[in-house]
Design brief:
This protein is α+β, with helices and mostly antiparallel strands. The chain has helices spanning 2-17, 96-101, 107-116, 139-149; strands at 25-34, 40-51, 54-63, 70-78, 85-95, 132-138, 155-165, 168-179. InterPro entries: DUF1091 (IPR010512).
Protein backbone atom coordinates (compact mmCIF):
# COMPACT_ATOMS: atom_id res chain seq x y z
CA UNK A 1 0.00 0.00 0.00
CA UNK A 2 2.89 2.38 0.77
CA UNK A 3 4.46 1.70 -2.64
CA UNK A 4 1.23 2.50 -4.51
CA UNK A 5 0.87 5.69 -2.48
CA UNK A 6 4.44 6.76 -3.40
CA UNK A 7 3.78 5.95 -7.07
CA UNK A 8 0.60 8.04 -7.02
CA UNK A 9 2.43 10.98 -5.41
CA UNK A 10 5.24 10.70 -8.01
CA UNK A 11 2.70 10.60 -10.88
CA UNK A 12 0.87 13.61 -9.45
CA UNK A 13 4.14 15.56 -9.04
CA UNK A 14 5.14 14.70 -12.61
CA UNK A 15 1.80 15.79 -14.04
CA UNK A 16 1.98 19.12 -12.17
CA UNK A 17 5.51 19.78 -13.42
CA UNK A 18 4.69 19.25 -17.10
CA UNK A 19 5.09 22.56 -18.88
CA UNK A 20 2.37 23.61 -21.30
CA UNK A 21 3.57 23.46 -24.90
CA UNK A 22 2.39 26.42 -26.92
CA UNK A 23 2.63 27.55 -30.52
CA UNK A 24 4.10 30.81 -31.70
CA UNK A 25 3.00 32.97 -34.64
CA UNK A 26 5.51 35.04 -36.60
CA UNK A 27 4.88 37.53 -39.42
CA UNK A 28 7.09 36.68 -42.41
CA UNK A 29 5.96 39.12 -45.13
CA UNK A 30 3.24 41.55 -46.17
CA UNK A 31 2.29 42.80 -49.61
CA UNK A 32 -0.29 45.47 -50.42
CA UNK A 33 -1.19 46.03 -54.05
CA UNK A 34 -3.57 48.58 -55.52
CA UNK A 35 -5.16 47.18 -58.70
CA UNK A 36 -6.74 50.55 -59.60
CA UNK A 37 -4.57 53.57 -58.72
CA UNK A 38 -7.49 55.89 -59.59
CA UNK A 39 -9.53 54.22 -56.83
CA UNK A 40 -6.97 53.65 -54.06
CA UNK A 41 -3.31 53.34 -53.23
CA UNK A 42 -1.23 52.41 -50.20
CA UNK A 43 0.66 55.13 -48.38
CA UNK A 44 2.43 52.43 -46.37
CA UNK A 45 2.31 48.69 -45.80
CA UNK A 46 5.02 47.09 -43.68
CA UNK A 47 6.12 44.83 -40.86
CA UNK A 48 8.28 46.62 -38.32
CA UNK A 49 10.60 44.69 -36.03
CA UNK A 50 11.33 46.81 -32.96
CA UNK A 51 13.24 44.07 -31.17
CA UNK A 52 13.28 40.26 -30.99
CA UNK A 53 9.97 40.08 -29.17
CA UNK A 54 8.03 43.07 -30.56
CA UNK A 55 6.94 43.18 -34.20
CA UNK A 56 3.91 44.86 -35.67
CA UNK A 57 2.08 45.45 -38.96
CA UNK A 58 0.93 48.86 -40.18
CA UNK A 59 -1.12 49.61 -43.31
CA UNK A 60 -2.61 52.83 -44.63
CA UNK A 61 -4.83 52.67 -47.71
CA UNK A 62 -5.75 55.97 -49.28
CA UNK A 63 -9.21 55.91 -50.86
CA UNK A 64 -9.69 58.30 -53.79
CA UNK A 65 -13.18 56.99 -54.55
CA UNK A 66 -15.73 55.22 -52.41
CA UNK A 67 -17.25 52.91 -51.39
CA UNK A 68 -15.60 49.58 -50.76
CA UNK A 69 -18.63 47.31 -51.06
CA UNK A 70 -17.29 43.77 -50.68
CA UNK A 71 -14.38 42.09 -48.99
CA UNK A 72 -13.15 38.59 -49.76
CA UNK A 73 -10.92 36.86 -47.22
CA UNK A 74 -9.17 33.54 -47.68
CA UNK A 75 -6.68 31.61 -45.57
CA UNK A 76 -4.19 29.52 -47.48
CA UNK A 77 -1.65 27.06 -46.11
CA UNK A 78 1.56 25.74 -47.64
CA UNK A 79 1.43 21.93 -47.69
CA UNK A 80 4.49 19.73 -48.18
CA UNK A 81 4.71 18.27 -51.67
CA UNK A 82 2.80 21.16 -53.31
CA UNK A 83 4.13 24.26 -54.98
CA UNK A 84 2.58 27.33 -53.42
CA UNK A 85 -0.35 27.67 -51.08
CA UNK A 86 -3.66 25.79 -50.98
CA UNK A 87 -7.00 26.93 -49.47
CA UNK A 88 -7.29 26.15 -45.76
CA UNK A 89 -10.29 26.54 -43.43
CA UNK A 90 -12.38 29.08 -45.36
CA UNK A 91 -12.85 31.50 -48.22
CA UNK A 92 -15.60 34.05 -47.61
CA UNK A 93 -16.93 37.10 -49.40
CA UNK A 94 -19.21 39.50 -47.62
CA UNK A 95 -20.97 42.81 -48.01
CA UNK A 96 -18.70 45.10 -46.00
CA UNK A 97 -21.35 47.61 -44.91
CA UNK A 98 -23.87 44.96 -43.92
CA UNK A 99 -21.21 43.19 -41.87
CA UNK A 100 -20.10 46.42 -40.14
CA UNK A 101 -23.72 47.12 -39.17
CA UNK A 102 -23.74 43.78 -37.30
CA UNK A 103 -20.25 42.33 -36.80
CA UNK A 104 -21.68 39.25 -35.04
CA UNK A 105 -23.72 38.26 -38.13
CA UNK A 106 -20.90 36.11 -39.54
CA UNK A 107 -18.79 34.19 -36.97
CA UNK A 108 -15.84 33.65 -39.33
CA UNK A 109 -15.71 37.28 -40.44
CA UNK A 110 -16.15 38.35 -36.82
CA UNK A 111 -13.17 36.21 -35.76
CA UNK A 112 -11.02 37.76 -38.51
CA UNK A 113 -12.23 41.29 -37.77
CA UNK A 114 -11.29 40.77 -34.11
CA UNK A 115 -7.65 40.55 -35.28
CA UNK A 116 -7.66 44.22 -36.30
CA UNK A 117 -10.55 45.79 -34.37
CA UNK A 118 -8.45 47.47 -31.61
CA UNK A 119 -5.87 48.72 -34.14
CA UNK A 120 -7.98 50.17 -36.95
CA UNK A 121 -10.16 53.12 -37.85
CA UNK A 122 -12.56 50.72 -39.65
CA UNK A 123 -14.60 50.21 -36.49
CA UNK A 124 -17.76 52.08 -37.45
CA UNK A 125 -20.72 51.70 -39.79
CA UNK A 126 -20.57 52.75 -43.42
CA UNK A 127 -19.85 54.92 -45.28
CA UNK A 128 -16.06 54.82 -45.30
CA UNK A 129 -15.16 58.14 -46.87
CA UNK A 130 -11.69 58.32 -45.34
CA UNK A 131 -8.36 56.51 -45.51
CA UNK A 132 -8.35 53.01 -44.01
CA UNK A 133 -5.69 52.38 -41.38
CA UNK A 134 -4.40 49.43 -39.38
CA UNK A 135 -1.80 50.85 -37.03
CA UNK A 136 0.73 48.80 -35.07
CA UNK A 137 -1.07 45.43 -35.02
CA UNK A 138 1.32 43.59 -32.67
CA UNK A 139 2.55 40.05 -33.18
CA UNK A 140 1.58 39.05 -29.61
CA UNK A 141 -2.08 39.94 -30.31
CA UNK A 142 -2.16 37.85 -33.51
CA UNK A 143 -0.33 35.06 -31.71
CA UNK A 144 -3.06 35.00 -29.04
CA UNK A 145 -5.81 34.86 -31.70
CA UNK A 146 -4.29 31.90 -33.61
CA UNK A 147 -2.98 29.88 -30.67
CA UNK A 148 -5.47 30.52 -27.84
CA UNK A 149 -8.78 31.84 -29.25
CA UNK A 150 -8.94 29.41 -32.18
CA UNK A 151 -5.84 27.18 -32.21
CA UNK A 152 -4.47 26.72 -35.73
CA UNK A 153 -2.06 23.89 -36.67
CA UNK A 154 1.62 24.63 -37.22
CA UNK A 155 2.68 25.66 -40.71
CA UNK A 156 3.16 28.48 -43.19
CA UNK A 157 0.05 30.56 -43.91
CA UNK A 158 -1.14 33.31 -46.20
CA UNK A 159 -4.11 35.50 -45.29
CA UNK A 160 -5.29 37.26 -48.43
CA UNK A 161 -7.97 39.93 -48.59
CA UNK A 162 -9.46 41.32 -51.79
CA UNK A 163 -11.18 44.70 -51.52
CA UNK A 164 -13.92 45.31 -54.09
CA UNK A 165 -16.14 48.14 -55.27
CA UNK A 166 -18.96 47.53 -57.74
CA UNK A 167 -17.82 43.88 -58.03
CA UNK A 168 -14.38 44.93 -59.32
CA UNK A 169 -11.25 44.02 -57.35
CA UNK A 170 -9.56 47.29 -56.36
CA UNK A 171 -6.85 46.17 -53.92
CA UNK A 172 -5.22 43.03 -52.51
CA UNK A 173 -3.50 42.67 -49.14
CA UNK A 174 -1.48 39.54 -48.42
CA UNK A 175 -0.11 38.78 -44.94
CA UNK A 176 2.26 35.82 -44.63
CA UNK A 177 3.03 34.11 -41.36
CA UNK A 178 4.34 30.97 -39.73
CA UNK A 179 3.01 29.09 -36.72
CA UNK A 180 5.67 26.94 -35.08
Amino acid sequence: MGVNHCGLVALLALSISIVEISSKFEFTNIMCNSLDKQFSDFEYCYIKSVNRSYKYVSIKAKLFKTPITKINGVILKRFNGYNGYRPFMFNITLDACRFMNNTKSNPIASYLYDFIRPFTNMNHNCPYDHDLVIEKLPIHFVNHQVTKVLPVPEGDYLYETNWMAYDIRRAVVKVYGTIS
